[in-house]
Amino acid sequence: MKIYINEHNPIEFDFEQTVDRFFVEELPLINRNRNGNFLILKIKKKDISTWKMIHVISKATGLKERDIGYAGLKDKSATAIQYISISKQYERELKNITTDKIEILERSYSKSPIKIGQLKGNRFSIVLFDVGSNESKEIRDISEKIMKNGIPNYFGYQRFGEDSKSYQQGEKIAKSGKRLKGAKEKLLVSAYQSHLFNSWLSERVRLSKIISEHSVDRASTELGYPKELVAVLAKQSQFFKLFIGDLIYSYPYGKSYYLKDMLSTAKIFEKREISPTGLLCGSHVQRSKSDAYHLESTYDDDELSSLRGDRRFAWIWPEDIGTIYDPNMRQLTIEFILPKGSYATTLLEEIGKKPLKPTTQE
């Protein structure tokens, strides 16, 4: 269960992820120019997933799907602008694309193909309905706080399937010891990885909240920590408390190191130059150390070796949040930038202080 960090009351608004209300655009890192062996396509897609788009382009060009480069996955239920790369010798075959769900906006070239994760981030524009004037002001105010203080980088509900329980299937597959078969099994096991990460992050938010809101004596009693440790943690002025042994990454991307001094590192954290990371357990992944690993170990599954592990930012800072409000339509458009891999719905849930998972009908 996600724990929200801000103290405002829940804010009412109507959210639905559709092609008319949810817009996302990739901010690419690849160098584009007029020369190179790879054609870079800036594509606008509606009502089609990235996987399906790649399948359509594969069929139209004769390319194998694995030879089509992309930086990230975008949902079907959205209008998305993203970039893909193909060998430029297949450019003529693009005329075979007939669906109106895919529109090529720009063409450029590069010396190298696009790779997974090759993004600065994503820009979002989302339309919320049934927003009153008071709620629009509250959304604007809390957005200012979020830009300043940041939010926990939870995986969004989309990661866990329609019933929110796909991670349970993933756990069974991960513990079977069998080699993964196909994209579906990989997706289920990655949902299990994500569930463990979210559970760990919720616990770190919970204990940070206790330390931030209570005296050293009371926090020590509630957490069962020595007073000396809680006193040092309480000296960190930021909300999300850092522990010895946390694996720190430069933000938004860069080198990593293990935390050795909490207070000096906390000052750098406040400047948004670094962020602690959480574990996506799997093969070939670094674990945190010392006190931080004591907190992480509960959410580490060392039997999960069928997928490669990774680290994920625990804390992010949304940028350029802006709102446009139409009082006659009771409609608010919210725009913002998130680092790659972060979920727009996670930000909206922090603003609304409520889950946005749509109710499924039998």
Summary?
With 362 residues, this protein is of the alpha+beta class. It has nine helices and 14 strands.
Describe the structure.
It is a single chain. The chain is an alpha+beta fold and 362 residues long. It folds into three domains: 1-21 and 126-150 and 317-362, Gyrase A, domain 2 (2-Layer Sandwich); 30-117, Alpha-Beta Plaits (2-Layer Sandwich), CATH 3.30.70.3160; 160-313, TruD, insertion domain (Pseudouridine synthase). It contains nine helices and 14 strands. It has helices at 50-61, 133-149, 166-176, 182-213, 216-223, 227-234, 262-270, 290-296, 344-352; strands spanning 22-28, 38-46, 69-70, 79-87, 102-110, 119-128, 151-152, 247-250, 256-258, 274-280, 310-313, 315-316, 319-326, 331-339. The strands form three sheets. Strands 1, 2, 3, 4, 5, 6, 13 and 14 form an eight-stranded mixed β-sheet that branches. A four-stranded antiparallel β-sheet has the order 9-8-10-11. A hairpin with a 4-residue loop joins strand 13 (319-326) and strand 14 (331-339). Helix 3 (166-176) packs across helix 4 and helix 5 (216-223) crosses helix 6. The longest helix has 32 residues, at 182-213. It is globular, with a radius of gyration of 22 Å. The mean pLDDT is 94.
Structural class comes to: alpha+beta
Distance between the termini: 24 Å
Please state the overall shape, judged from the principal axes of the Cα atoms: globular
Strand content: 15-25%
Write down the CATH topology of the largest domain: Pseudouridine synthase
Q: What is the N-to-C succession of helices and strands?
A: EEHEEEEHEHHHHEEHEHEEEEH
| Name of the CATH homologous superfamily of the largest domain | TruD, insertion domain
Radius of gyration: 22 Å
Q: Write the CATH architecture name of the largest domain.
A: 2-Layer Sandwich
Main pleated sheet: 8 strands, mixed
Low-confidence residue ranges: none
- CATH class category name of the largest domain: Alpha Beta
Report the mean per-residue pLDDT as an integer. Answer: 94
What share of the residues lie within helices?
A: 25-40%
Number of strands: 14
- Tally of contiguous helical segments: 9
